[in-house]
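Run log, item B.
One chain of 358 residues. Sequence copied directly from the ordering sheet:
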Amino acid sequence: MNRIAFSRKLIVCLITGLVVGASFRRLTSRFIGHGVTLPLVSLLAYVLLIAFLLTAVVWNYRERRRPASSQGWLQVIQGILLYTLAIDLCTFGWNKVYHLQMVVPLGQLDIPFSALSGEELTWAYFGWSYPYMVAIAIMQMTCALLLLGRRTRMLGLIMIVPVLLNIILIDTFYQMPPGVLLHASILMAGVTYLLMTLYQPLAEFFLRRDWLPVGTGWKAPVKWLLRAGVAVIPFVLNATYDYPNYHPELTGKYVVRQLSINHIPCGPPATGDSMLTKVFMDLGNDFVLEFNDWRRRYIGTYDYRPQDGHLSARWRYPAGVHEPFSGTLRPDAQKGTWRFQGILGSDTVEMQLVKVKR
């Protein structure tokens, strides 16, 4: 009656070993890393994992001799798993409070936005607001403390799932280092296992019907129609919306090449020159000319006639700028390039626009 299948022993020991090893590696490399090499820390983490796997074998052997002790082994290993998860989550919280997470080197903050990696963009965005960091830290530490109470454990596990899921999605789609994603996935595996041990109370809470409010009495087809409307109506509204990408073939960032002003070819701009270097054609027909520096820009709205390639722009920034910009824009020989001939102010302009991939 007190026996536990070896597969269950192996699963709990494997997950606990992964969580303990990953947390040991992260905490040791950050806080006790002076004089300790990373390969040595990783080796010790693997030793911990192997030790827990061997524990499953010893546990199974001891169970044959004393079946009554099996539940005690299970409680101890689950307790180690819970405590390690709580320590790791709480440490993540204090990392944010003490500015040890979501930090971008100051020198990178002046790099153009489009040149930053997904990891740098993520840290710069989240780290911009210290109160937000503290709020996330408080949530993580609260979940960690809830895990340690028998009555609050289920609530803590439920609360930590969306936090970890959000971290995993960010790590995946913003191209964080693989180790970061692996660590979050291991923590999620530990939380998932602990939730599965609480299947009965979870099913009782989420699937029980007797405490739900009484229905309206509508027939099933009406209910299903209303439910379908929740998904279909917003979809139809968005699908029929006049999306402001009026000229998708033009939308993008362009680098100016082969620039000629008044039929005189211009060489590469030197530092401080106000030569036209970039062109942006955006949603809503927004149009930007950049003159060798992001602080020197004309911003306005363009009109484009695909029939004859006529392109013109009206400026709204800087205030008081009324220099005419108009001409002909046609596709060039190479894909993603365009050739413009026209006027800017009192000068004739000819240039090649080369589209920059994101």
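Observations after the first pass:
- The chain has two domains: 6-207, 252-356.
- The longest strand covers residues 252-261.
Flagged for discussion on Thursday.
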